[in-house]
Amino acid sequence: MKLVVGPFNRVEGDLEVTLEAEDGVVTEARVNAPLYRGFEVMLQGRDPRDALVITPRICGICSISQSAAAASALGAAMGLAPTPAGADMAALIHAAENAADHLTHFHLFFMPDFARPDYAGRPWHGRVVERFTAMEGSAQRQAITARAELLHVMGLLAGKWPHTLAIQPGGVTKAPGAREKARLTATLRAFRRYLEGVLFGGPLEEFIGLSDVPSLMSWGRGDVGLFLTLAADLGLMDLGRGSGRYLSFGAYRRERGPFFASGLWEGGAQVFDPGAIVEDLSHSWMEGEAAHPYDGRTEPDPQMASGYSWCKAPRLGGRPVEVGALARMVVDGHALGLEMAGGGVLARVAGRLLELARTQVLMEELVAGIVPGAEYMARGGMPSEGRGAGLVEAARGALGHWIRIEKGRIAGYQIIAPTTWNFSPRDAGGVPGPLEAALVGAKPGVEVQHVVRSFDPCMVCTVH
Amino acid sequence: MNLIWLQASGCGGCTMSLLCAESPGALEMLEDAGIRLLWHPALSVETGEEARKILEDAAEGRVPLDILCVEGAVARGPGGSGRFQMLSGTGLSMMAWVQRLSARARHVVAVGTCAAYGGVTAAGGNPTDAVGLAYDGAREGGVLDRPVVNIAGCPTHPGWVTETLSMLAGGEVVELDGLGRPRFYADHLVHHGCPKNEFYEYKASARDLSEIGCMMENLGCIGTQAVGDCNIRPWNGEGSCTRGGYPCISCTSPGFEDPSHAFVETPKIAGIPVGLPTDMPKAWFMALASLSKAATPARIGTNARADRVVVPPTLRKK
């Protein structure tokens, strides 16, 4: 039996999933990103600095991540690093977006499916209906308010959100002073009050200190506790399990290194070689050969003759990887993250919640470290020839920009977004992408919804 | 009032910005205005078949549609087929859905510069042949031949959207400017209320990003020509582009995505910036600028090149 699921909403952007099912379970899945815009083509021939205006507009939910990747790629080409204070403010702006995105995903995109009548009669259902019914649930309303207030960080440091020009290769355009520090402190205290009072229902440090799955499952407080209760009831750890191969480019690069480590993990830490990244085009509506992003091209096949998605299929050392908050927690070596490695829906969502708690701590540390009068911007010139890669972590996982500059203009610009990894189509060897693999064994219907949304896909980034 | 929101060829950022509405929040504001969201791709529970039924019912006139909001440009390519964006699960292009639903809608609202004029989706040679709903850049055209409210901006301020929708729901006339933008924000310039106004008065200019001087002379700022009340009502608490230390790139204007120069560099001829304020005689501008530049107090000249106020205002003590 063949099923086409679309429009698949509450994901950022456009998604269609085609399922083959037998005896009530999915036997094969094909994931289609049905929107193509051609950002890599638009950038050709432009002044390299224009990438800082154009690439954030790939995505309205991870706009800052795109800014950070572009700034980092340009910086690499220029041989320019941000000042330590500038790097910290860029990290703070980026962390605020990622925290806001995790909140948006949990409340607006993921949880409303558990308020569906499918689950009427479950002991937790009434509470979920009250808290998470789409557009009406009390938790949704509280989260939207908390998010809007958290994003005052953007008003103070980045002008506005989304789509800022505040993050530059040398640092940030706005130097915070004592007043900004006081305001940011107040904003973050309010956000902690919300997280501890409503979402987690307890001290963040206590949640961060959880080191195994049984103690996680007995958390029992706040909306997190409500989620864990239903997750245990529905067996969400085993639904949509991942392959256990995780990649993180490392998040929030500060002077002494990234706050969340970079690396490849598969049963243990593995050597990560960015040179081993290749985009395979065998099942996408793209022309050309598989290539490393420095050599990659973006030439859509207007006939859409062979393939089933606009998405390319990135592979690391010839194989797919899963990226995202869970991947970051695993690669970073967090005890709970490591114990959840290879897990399904529950692991991805709990990984995100764990990261949200840890991100709050990071943001507080960054604000406490603000020194009025420090240098927030380093200056440098744009070379007429050069290349550079910007590897960062968006809320949804590893995001890379690769730029080539010739005669002072952009000669090549390739982007691999987190969901390009997670929702890739098959490669030349017929190996499915991470979501395609995770869907096998799920029941068509609401289970498929949970698996897909557990990845927090961002489809506008996927194809760009 | 029934409202359907479609996300066409764009980034979804105008919805993300809308959710930053405060006092009250976006959902409360729509609710209070009597607007029912029949379907929104980021917010509604209905997915797949359930969503298709809602769209089909509205397109066939079985359920009245008062307001159609479209976010994102409409991709007409390849070859006029619209297949660069298929509305998944329906076998139809987004272009076809926008045309079908707009024929039933009492009001059509383009949310964001992409939906209004093409915007960034139409940048760099426009690889997907994307246009706005009723405009192709600054020219009337696009895919609809009917009145459209163009809430241009990249992204839109949450207030621009909630206030336009409240006015439509309340039966009030939304007055539009010559490019279809609501006048309540398009009658202002980004320059109005810009914290760099004193620097502008003396043409005390920043030369590099992060310096707090006026960004018009060197850094590509066109806030004196761009419409928007960005510096009158704040973004995200208390921000705006110029408050954030970077130039206004006139994101409310058709064609802003392809300036003939780098965004953060002011094009000049013989050292004089081109593109001076539109409604001021150029000779007068030049005369005033050279006069005020010569009269720049040391405080303003010094601060303009710093990343914070280093020379405070002189105190007048009795």
TrEMBL record, chain A:
Xref: PANTHER family: HYDROGENASE EXPRESSION_FORMATION PROTEIN HUPK (PTHR42958:SF4), HYDROGENASE-2 LARGE CHAIN (PTHR42958)
Keywords: Iron, Magnesium, Metal-binding, Nickel, Oxidoreductase
Designated name of the protein: HupV protein
Subcellular location: Cell envelope
Family per similarity comment: Belongs to the [NiFe]/[NiFeSe] hydrogenase large subunit family.
GO cellular component terms attached to this protein's record: cell envelope
GO function term, MF aspect, one: ferredoxin hydrogenase activity
Known cofactor(s): Fe cation; Ni(2+)
Family matches, as SUPFAM superfamilies: HydB/Nqo4-like (SSF56762)
Main localization of the protein described in the UniProt heading: other
Top-level taxonomic group: Bacteria
TrEMBL record, chain B:
InterPro entries for the chain: Cytochrome-c3_hydrogenase_C, NADH_UbQ_OxRdtase-like_20kDa, NiFe-Hase_small_C_sf, NiFe_Hase_small_N_sf, NiFe_hydrogenase_ssu
Residues annotated as binding [4Fe-4S] cluster 2: H191, C194, C214, C221
GO CC entries: [Ni-Fe] hydrogenase complex; cell envelope; ferredoxin hydrogenase complex; membrane
Start and end residues of each Cytochrome-c3 hydrogenase C-terminal domain: 188-263
Span of domain NADH:ubiquinone oxidoreductase-like 20kDa subunit: 11-167
Binding-site list for [3Fe-4S] cluster: C230, C248, C251
One GO molecular-function entry: 4 iron, 4 sulfur cluster binding
A Pfam family assignment: NiFe_hyd_SSU_C
Enzyme class label: oxidoreductase
Primary localization class, coarse: other
Subunit-level organization: Heterodimer of a large and a small subunit.
Family of the protein in this entry: Belongs to the [NiFe]/[NiFeSe] hydrogenase small subunit family.
Protein name per Swiss-Prot or TrEMBL: hydrogenase (acceptor)
